[in-house]
Write a structure and sequence with these properties.
Elements lengths: L8 E4 L5 H12 L3 E6 L2 H11 L3 E5 L5 H10 L6 E4 L15 H27 L4 E6 L12 H20 L5 E8 L2 E2 L2 H5 L4 H8 L5 E2 H12 L9 E4 L16
Helix pairs in contact: 1-8, 3-4, 4-5
The structure holds NADP nicotinamide-adenine-dinucleotide phosphate (NAP).
NADP nicotinamide-adenine-dinucleotide phosphate binds next to α1 and α6.
Length: 252
């Protein structure tokens, strides 16, 4: 038996593109009322035009702690579903060359913003009859690759924070899931490569990659499972993506 999302309120961060936009659209399609956030107001307006009055929105920069506090405080009630999706990777330079500014922004968005919003909403969500938190982590949180450094570490944080939330929420009716996608074509690589569309396109060339819609399907699937089932971690890759051998540096 599937759980209905009819009439539930879902807050989706980073709803202006990619996985967040696809998830907002799918949840509205399943009868939920969605509040979508992001920095790009025109994108939020376009989502509203597409999805109608079941999509409400607010501009919110996840690196702005005060704005997060005010936003959460202004909500009329706690959401039934929180999708902590907003996030980004910046650059692929090695750790000895990477930009500290990029590192700070990834930490501020992927970690600090996510925990601040969660902390602000959690008391209200815990008081609900039941609630869901879905944190968008990444396979990069489990498997290192050259240049992932702080991005990968930030996603390892998201996964571990999700598991620790489950511990703290023991006995409550709040489910927590860490969703960990692999290669998914969105604006992710364009952001990583500072707007270089050609470089970004090459990441997905010939790969039969996952799409944002695929990830939204998995998110909707776990949200509609019977309420006593908690998927702790869901790792998703396209069939075309798998694992390489360890690299061994040899002398001589
Ligand atoms: N695509 C992949 O291969 C992949 C794989 C694993 C995990 N992920 C994760 O999936 C999540 C969504 O990424 P995506 O692939 O859908 O990329 P995307 O298309 O670039 O979407 C990223 C979203 O995050 C929002 N965002 C970024 N910085 C923000 C900030 N400071 N404040 C508020 N919102 C912010 C963006 O909105 P604005 O720019 O409008 O603010 C946008 O809506 C991220 O957490 C990413 O790490 C992606």
């Amino acid at each position: 038996m599937r759980t209905s999302l009819e009439g539930k309120t879902a807050l989706v961060t980073g709803a202006t593109s990619g996985i967040g936009a696809a998830t907002a659209e799918r949840l509205v399609g399943l009868g939920a009322r969605v509040i979508g956030t992001g920095r790009r107001g025109e994108r939020l307006e376009a989502m509203r035009a597409l999805l109608g009055e079941d999509f409400r929105h607010a501009r919110l920069d996840m690196t702005d702690a005060k704005a997060i506090r005010n936003f959460a405080g202004d909500l009329p009630h706690a959401p039934d579903i929180l999708i902590n999706n907003a996030g980004l990777a910046l650059g692929l330079s090695g750790a000895d060359e990477a930009s500290l500014e990029d590192w700070d922004r990834m930490i501020d968005t992927n970690i600090r913003g996510l925990v601040h919003l969660t902390r602000a909403l959690l008391p209200g969500m815990k008081a609900l009859e039941r609630a869901d938190i879905v944190n968008i982590s990444s396979v990069a949180g489990s498997y290192p690759y050259p240049g992932a450094n702080v991005y990968g570490a930030s996603k390892a944080f998201v996964t571990q924070f999700s598991l620790n939330l489950r511990s703290d929420l023991a006995g409550s009716k709040v489910r927590v899931s860490s969703v960990e996608p692999g290669l998914t074509e969105t604006e992710f690589s364009e952001v990583r490569f500072a707007g270089d569309k050609e470089k970004a396109a090459r990441v997905y060339e010939g790969t039969d990659n996952l799409t944002a819609d695929d990830i939204s399907l998995v998110i909707a699937d776990l949200l509609t499972l019977p309420p006593h089932i908690n998927l702790n971690r869901v790792e998703i890759m396209p069939v075309s993506q798998s694992f390489g051998p360890f690299r061994i540096a040899r002398e001589g």
